[in-house]
Amino acid sequence: MAKKKQPAKLSIGEMRLMSVLWKCGPLKLSEAFEQQPGEVGYTTIQTQLNRLVEKGAVSRSKSRPTRYRALIQPEIASAGMLQLLTDTLGGGSIIPLVEQLLLQGPLTKEDVQELRQLLNRAGKKSTRSKK
Q1: Is the peptide bond before 7 cis (omega within 30 degrees of 0)?
Q2: Residue 49 near residue 68, CB atoms below 8 Å
Q3: The predicted structure's pLDDT at residue 12
Q4: What are the residues whose beta carbons fall under 8 Å from the beta carbon of 92, sequence distance 6 or more?
Q5: What is the mean pLDDT of each run of 10 residues along the chain (131 residues)?
Q6: Residue-wise over 28-52: b if at least 16 C-beta within 10 A, else e?
Q7: What is the pLDDT of residue 131?
Q8: DSSP string of the chain?
């Protein structure tokens, strides 16, 4: 059986930086700094990039100027963040997290229909895995 890849555990700041790399592709430190939303210091971006390299989420080129490239997909990074939220806010259950998301704003009929389809697929998957 193939070993399931563990979700990356990234901070909020690291997630913001990853979103810049996913959107823009490989960037130099100065470019990543320019693209970063908000008022984040240059050395903070440098530290975050170094940490992302250590975590295996980003690669650093050997050429000069150094470029940083995302190695993990958004789905892997978001799975880690969602697992942290589920564990922290829901005590391991997704129900409180889903409830909070649903309370954030009005849902359209299309949203409700799509959520029902997701729940149906999840229910079928759950039933198959219990057999």
Answers
A1: no
A2: yes
A3: 87
A4: 86
A5: 58 92 96 89 96 95 95 88 85 88 88 91 74 56
A6: ebebbbeebeeeeeeeebeebbebb
A7: 56
A8: -PPPPPPP---HHHHHHHHHHHHH-SEEHHHHHHH--SS--HHHHHHHHHHHHHTTSEEE-SSSS-EEEE-S-HHHHHHHHHHHHHHHHHTT-SHHHHHHHHHTSPPPHHHHHHHHHHHHHHHHHHHHHH-
At 5 the pLDDT is 54
Structure tokens at 57: 């989420």
Question: Residue holding tokens 């409180």?
Answer: 96
In this prediction, residue 123 carries a pLDDT of 85
